[in-house]
Hints:
Elements lengths: L35 E12 L7 E11 L4 E7 L4 E7 L2 E2 L4 E3 L2 E10 L5 E9 L8 E5 L2 E5 L25 E10 L3 E4 L2 E7 L4 E12 L6 E4 L2 E8 L4 E8 L7 H4 L3 H12 L7 E6 L10 E4 L10 H9 L7 E3 L6 H18 L2 H18 L23 H18 L1 H14 L3 E3 L1 H11 L5 H7 L5 E14 L2 E13 L8 E8 L5 E8 L3 E8 L5 E4 L9 E8 L3 E5 L4 E8 L3 E8 L13 E3 L4 E7 L4 E10 L15 E7 L7 E2 L3 E4 L3 E6 L5 E8 L16 E4 L6 E6 L5 E7 L4 E7 L5 E5 L6 E9 L4 E9 L2
Parallel strand pairs: 1-11, 17-18, 18-19, 20-21
Antiparallel strand pairs: 1-2, 2-8, 3-7, 4-5, 4-8, 6-7, 9-10, 10-15, 11-14, 12-15, 13-14, 16-17, 22-23, 23-26, 24-25, 24-27, 28-31, 29-30, 30-34, 31-33, 32-39, 33-39, 34-38, 35-36, 35-39, 37-38, 40-41, 41-44, 42-43, 42-45, 45-46
Helix pairs in contact: 2-3, 2-4, 3-4, 4-5, 4-6, 5-6, 6-7
Amino acid sequence: MRRKNFVFILFLWIAISGHPQNNNPDVARILISDTLDAVHYSIYLNIVDLPSQNLIGYTEVSIIPKYDNINDIQLELLQLAIDSVIVNGFQVNNYTYSDPLINIPLPEPANTGDTIKVRIRYHGIPFHEGWGGFHWAGQYCFNLGVGFELISHNLGKAWFPCIDDFHDRATYDYYITVEEDKTAVCGGILMSVTTNGDNTKTFHWQMRNTIPAYLASVAVGHYDLITDTYNGIRSNIPINFYVRPSDSIHVYGSFINLKEILAIFEEHFGPYPWPQVGYVSTALGAMEHAANIAYPYGCINGGLTYEYLYAHEISHMWFGDKVTCASAEDMWLNEGWGTFCEMFYLEDLYSYEDYIENVNTMHKEVLQYCHTPQGDGQYFALYGIPPEYTYGMTAYKKGGIILHTLRGYLGDSLFFNVSKGFLEEYAYNYMSSFDLRDYINSHTSVDVTDFFDAWVFSPGFPHYSVDSFTVSPVGNNYDVRVYARQKSKGGCILANSNKIDITFMDSQWNVFTGTLNFSGLTGNQVFPVPFEPKIVMVDVEDEICDATTDDEMVIKNSGEFDFSDTFFKLNVVSINDSAYIRVSHNWVAPDSLKNPVNGLKLSDYRYWKIEGICEPGINATGIFQYNRNNYLDNTLIVNSEDSVVILYRENAGHDWQSIDFTQMGIWSIGYLYVPNLQMGEYTLAVWDHSVGTIELKPADKSFMKIYPNPTYNQITIEFLKLQQGSILIFNNEGKTLDSIPISPWQQKLNWHVNNLPNGTYFIQFKNLNNEILSTEKVIVLK
């Protein structure tokens, strides 16, 4: 990452007064906007000679001091040459320019109430990095208002002198002169197009709402204009798509649902806050410039592949533009909301199932990768992310799923009312994470201080589980006392004021749900339930993105069933009627052994809980994936000498014990097959064979003999003990390749391997009760 340290020369170290403000004393900082307020910019640019990649022009900025006796003003301009500086009509020659800071002495001190007008002429090849800055792309050029590499990330200063932070907001007039065959597109309203008589035109755009400098925008090129109108809550709003001529036929297909998405956001977040809905196609994007979203060429393809992306960007017109985060450390208030909205719109446009499926997929991705090199490299709190990771997975995806969790914590009515409320309270201003917390506290009956402490201001994730429950008959009902426990993934503090939905299910699949409230490590609560429950489950409706991922199924027939996001499959051999099965993959360490076993190491990262109603009966094999790659079992399975095993316990009141299983795969990745799967908890472990022999009940190796091994075209299976059953043949991924019935008097079986590729295969014998009596490994060579 490329870094650049910005030094701001200011004269007062003060506590920022006025509304809104960041009331956390640990994040006080000095900004140019602490002492100066840029209220309006008029930007005049000549972008005629695109091949030269030169910007030529000047900017006039009106500045009001926030304190008396201001002797200097500061602006930022990055990597461009200054030609002249004029203050209130007088040229200033003794300014200093230490890229990017311009320090301009004033002819006389300025006070509050004064307006200082500064005109700076400049030219040069503007800055850009891999993504942000001012870019040239053939006959097109455009800006992207933030960079991922440069620190600070704000890049309004890449193309005009400005106060470039999240606090300062101003109105804008843009006067962009271009070749006659080109169009200049900016945010706001197009006021006029003037033909200059020298094969150039000047486009005058005006933004009357205040925005920070990084949300100002310009794009120049050969654009076709596609127009439409959205009938908003308050007024009819023009929709303008500026696209390459070759992309114009694709606009309708790609944006067919835009107006419906706008209506969804207006219903839940309030009226659309800008004078137009604007998208301009660019070689790079997407970037939420106010009323003029930079949107990548390739995403305008006539299909709905990138619908989520333009929904994300248009949601920024509320979250990030209308209300801007107070600092880079608060970036989840921009990007977390954008990510939440790119999932949420699915609920109204398509179905709640589509929404929750997206939440669950992102939840699993965050739990698995966010803290790894594939994500941000470690566990971060949502607030206070280091600048190198401002635009990383934590702010975007973790921010999105935590907002889903806040929605569940508050309930829909409060959540969406609060969203509308703070967007109005802080309209065209900035907000901090602390401001959002305090707004909710002061405008609802719910105190979210503990929620924010655990989910926003601390790294990692809480984890909730039910250890046990007791049932006491009371008349026709039952008092069920539930004992819950909390763990943490990634160093999170133990959360307080937890509100966890607990669902009770009886043998007839009747359900009853209540809310468990507790703080700290453990809690218990009595629930009056109208039936005698058989199982008690946590967060069945997926309202909390804690350190679990789960899936549930109703199973009515035999076959293999893959439980999403749990690394578990169920191979149902037989079923009498139907079964409800829920599998939870817990992203925390299992409880340790009550009686430690020398040489046995349990996973420090994950375990499973299998629960359900399986009456009158089900015979199934559980298939558990182990994988030292992909950031799953890399801390457990260290090398090829480690022998992976699986342990079982009925519930938290029991100790872990060894069970029958068959391993299919190599030492580092594969599956553990557990026959006659029982409800309860399962965890991976590794066993050190040098210590001795763990009690694992191995399959009967004297049951059958297989030869030749390795084989080239055929294997012979000789049965040393005659018994009726079946032979199953698997590849090393656990896929069943063949199933062959064996009669009670059969002594041999020949099986051809001509169509199989080289590799490792497994031959398994099951009796009529579907008990695995023997498993052997075969190597096929060609």
